[in-house]
Amino acid sequence: MMFFLLFVSIVMLQRIREVAIAKKNEKRMLAAGAYEAGASHYPVMIALHVAFFISLIAEVMLFERPISPWFLWLFMLFLLVQGLRVWCLASLGPFWNTKIIILPGANVVKKGPYKIIRHPNYFVVCTEILLLPLMFQAYFTAIVFTILNFAMLAVRIPTEEKALEEATNYRMQFKKGKTSDIVE
């Protein structure tokens, strides 16, 4: 149990650090004339992520879930996903945020993982919401929060893309067939 608590604590500290980076980027972007889109669903998204960690901890602790026999493989995949997370943050730089912050007239990001897939940061989050519980055999949390996260992204991604189409060069890039060139 101690290993699990340490592991989850490190992941939660990483998320808290990312929120601090997002706040710093948000202030800078708003000062440059940016605005927030999708503010109404943001508290629901935050609640979903907090509930995910509560559910994970509760399921593992209350039901005394052991480490998965596939832990090493799942952990290696988790580390690869963390590398992709860092690549996303580095590629977006000051545009990276947990909120949908749009800078009118900005060019969409066309580097890093954004050349390969449209929303690599969302891919990272989806993968983590599945991997973390599977590493500790918390199957209820894995299933429920994977479904809830997909429902959240069904709202968030269209909101983000609409805002990008209205205020950036996204539409021009999209018409060229470069669907991977989206600022997140």
TrEMBL record:
InterPro entries given in the database record: ICMT_MeTrfase, Metal_cation-efflux_comp
Location(s), subcellular: Membrane
Keywords: Membrane, Methyltransferase, Transferase, Transmembrane, Transmembrane helix
Bilayer-crossing regions: 46-63, 70-96, 129-155
Membrane topology: Multi-pass membrane protein
Any GO MF annotation of the entry: protein C-terminal S-isoprenylcysteine carboxyl O-methyltransferase activity
GO biological process: methylation
UniProt entry tagged with the keyword Membrane: yes
Entry keyword annotation includes S-adenosyl-L-methionine: no
Cellular compartments per GO CC: membrane
Main location: membrane
Name of the protein in its database record: Isoprenylcysteine carboxyl methyltransferase
Originating organism: Ureibacillus yapensis
Lineage: Bacteria, Bacillati, Bacillota, Bacilli, Bacillales
